[in-house]
Amino acid sequence: MSAVALSIGTAAAVAVLLGLPALRAKRGITDYVRGWLQRPWKRRGSRHRSTAESLREDASGFLRQYAALLQSGRSQSQAWADLHSHWRSRDPTHPLCVLSERASAAEHSGLGAEVGLRRGLQASPSGTAEGSAPVLREVLERLISVHALSQTTGAPLAGLCRKAAESLEDSAALHAAIRTSVAGPQLTQRLLTLLPLGGLAMGAVMGASPLGVLLGTGLGWACLISGLGMLFLGRAWSGRMIRAVARNV
Fold first, then answer.
1. pTM, full prediction
2. What are the residue ranges spanned by the domains of the chain?
3. Model confidence over 54-97: pLDDT tens digits?
4. How many whole angstroms separate alpha carbon 125 and alpha carbon 128?
5. How do residues 218-228 score in pLDDT, each as one tens digit?
6. CA-to-CA distance for 139 and 57, rounded, in angstroms?
């Protein structure tokens, strides 16, 4: 009787932990558990990723717009003015609007867009959304590089800008692949963390009284302490490897 009560209590604890009442929304058990396991990872990284991804996509379009304006016969000064006007009408606080404003002002003052871009690179990213500062720096460095390469070699700036846009798109695809590769180990880590709870529940159902053994004997305490130590060590080890990969996202 005590084994049955213990098994019921353990199952109830696991149900509360997993939040199974949410299954009333007619979601399958497998889908719900998978979503619950992935939820903390998504919650921590979703805002950072969405900001960086959005800026990277916008920057690719920005470079293609600049290339199209130059190819249509607009001068660099006119192209930067048009870009600034477009992005200001879209969002005056957008990082690319600030970037184009600096480049346009430098062009109109006779210093050249490259000077304005370098000033933007040296400026503090205050007001830049979290996660977008590295992307903005990458865009500025690419723009400075294509301007310097065009001036040095005489290569058409429009073609170099298109190549830079393609490079940004390849970078976005690489970041997406890294995020996909990280999701699997992250899910496995959470599943392995929950396995001991399943073992306790199974042992209780079989009448082995696992909690009584763990908490009522010296050998049980030794197993409990060593098991928890191994569990935390495994989480720390796998978490470190996952963070090392996710750092590049």
1. 0.57
2. 2-46+177-246, 51-174
3. 888 888 888 999 899 988 988 888 999 999 999 888 888 888 88
4. 5
5. 888 888 888 88
6. 11
Helices (H), the chain: 2-18, 29-71, 76-90, 95-108, 113-122, 133-153, 157-205, 210-216, 218-246
Torsion of CA 171, 175, 177, 183, to 10 degrees: 180
* Dist. CA 181–CA 174, nearest whole Å: 11
**Residue 215, both tokens:** 């908490």
Residues 6+ apart with CB under 8 A from 210: 199, 200, 203, 204
Spans in the chain with pLDDT lower than 70? 1-50, 124-131, 246-249
Fill in the DSSP letter of residue 93: T
Please provide residue 235's backbone torsions phi and psi, each rounded to the nearest 5 degrees.
-65, -40
Residue identified by tokens 């082995």 is 208
Question: Hey, how many other C-beta atoms are within 10 angstroms of the C-beta on 224?
Answer: 16
pLDDT confidence of residue 42 = 46
